Amino acid sequence: MAKARDIGDNNSFEMGKPYYCKECKRNHTKGKIYKEHLNFAQFKSQSEEDFEEEDTELTNDKYDDEAELIEAFDELENDENNSEFENQFDDNIDIDNEDIDNNGGAIQESINAVKKLPGVGEATLNKLIKAGFSSLESIAFTPPSIIQDESGLGEKTTTKLIKASMEELNIGFKSAEDVWEHRKNIARITTGSQELDDSLGGGVETGSLIEFFGEFRTGKTQIMHQLCVNVQLPEEKGGLEGKALYIDTEGTFRPERIIQMAEGLDLDHQKVLKNIVFGRAYNSDHQVLLIKEAANLIKEQNIKLIVVDSIIGHFRSEYIGRGTLASRQQNINSHLHDLLRLCDIYSDLAVVVTNQVQSRPDVFYGNPLKATGGNIIAHGSTIRVYLRKGKGEQRIAKIVDAPHLPEREAIFSITESGISD
Ligand code: GTP
Ligand code: MG
User: 243 C-alpha to center of ligand 2: Å?
Assistant: First the structure.
């Protein structure tokens, strides 16, 4: 694409070529210079800010002409800035697979639904998709400030998009019967242990954030590995026929274990490995970014399970001292909400995180260990499972906090071929 030129420094601008106009403070597009300038003149009285806001106004009568104008500019800019949006996961992993199809059709369908929202043109659509808002659900469930920050759209546009998406999705009050109808259809991933599955009400459920916490070597990472294998199983065997996305913050992901677990289930380990999208998070910012990017991969790659092992590690080591506690909790909270939102948007997605424990010197009775992250994590997770060591390979899991499950214990084992009873 030809670089925009400054008309002030270069008198020999040619009709039909893009250039930067000092008066409008914008690039003018090929072949539309006169029309655009006229448009600008009509709105000149407004401040630059108003001008921006008006441009993205969805139902403004003057919108058609202006929309054309801003879209032309945006396309110019988008072409130049495309490299910013390269995917973090792309370099690391080959996510091709013949068995679990990529979800091209479904993505196109949800994009089409967004495209049909009133006032959404090519430029707005591009901005939304690039920021990861490629479905009605993702727009409806995300706070306006986040959509604005990430897509660069104006406040009015965002508010209208959210309202329109909510109307389209029929979000509002519904009867408890409808909720029950929905919950009856929740899918589950087997953990590999019948007892642990039973205590979880049939396995790790989709649409919820599930936290496994416990001391070192209690099997948190092993369970995460096993779920990445099991999610690929057919439904009748306790899977969801989907891929897993694994975010490793501790450097403890081991493909060797995946191979052993796949072989334990008579699965082709090469295929199983291919169906796990892996991202190593090097610090808390990177971890947050990976989850934001993951949003784009879920539909595209048919991802049915997201694992974050562990959720707190980086935050804990980066924010040291009492003075940083407030901002640490704030950042963890917003990260958890990113994860919870994914559960809301994709009802067939399970999100599982691990958490460490810290000792409570003030406890004399009962268990002196509690999960790190404080109340923020406790309130963010839908179901919490506390793990502790038993004899030898045995581990004990206790459901400590679930809206619909009794507190009960399950005993399972960690063996060479994975989690079992
Ligand atoms: P931290 O990440 O350190 O907090 O611990 P964790 O809870 O994630 O522990 P992890 O899931 O890594 O469990 C490690 C334990 O799993 C080891 O101590 C072993 O007891 C068990 N384990 C790992 N691999 C094997 C294996 O191949 N065979 C058997 N029998 N056990 C294994
Ligand atoms: Mg671990």
Answer: 21
Ligand 1 within 6 A of CB of 249? no
User: How many angstroms is it from 395 CA to the middle of ligand 2?
Assistant: 14
Residue nearest to atom 4 of ligand 1 (CA): 216
Average confidence score pLDDT of the chain:
77
Give the pLDDT score at 181: 80
- The pLDDT value recorded for residue 327 is 83
SS3 377: helix
| pLDDT above 70 for 123 | yes
pLDDT tens per residue, range 210-251: 999 998 999 999 999 999 999 999 999 999 999 999 999 999
Q: Hey, which bits of 240-376 come out as E strands?
A: 243-248, 276-280, 303-309, 350-355, 357-359, 369-371
Of all ligands present, the nearest one to the C-alpha of 218 is: 1
Query: For the whole model, what pTM was predicted?
Result: 0.70
Closest ligand 1 atom number to CA of residue 219: 11
Burial profile 215-236: b = 16 or more Cβ within 10 angstroms, e = fewer: eeebbbbbbbbbbbbbbbbeee
Within-domain flag for 306: yes
Q: How far apart are CA 341 and CA 209, in angstroms?
A: 10
The Å distance, Cα 75 to ligand 2 centre, comes to 45
Place 11 in a pLDDT band, splitting at 50, 70 and 90: very low
Choose one of 142, 169, 196: the last residue of a domain: 169
180 CA → ligand 2 middle, Å: 35
Last residue within a domain, chosen from 114, 135, 169 = 169
Do residues 346 and 237 share a domain?
yes
Contact yes or no for 131/158 (Cβ under 8 A): no
The rounded distance, in Å, linking the Cα atoms of 212 and 226 is: 13
Nearest CA to ligand 1 atom 12: 221
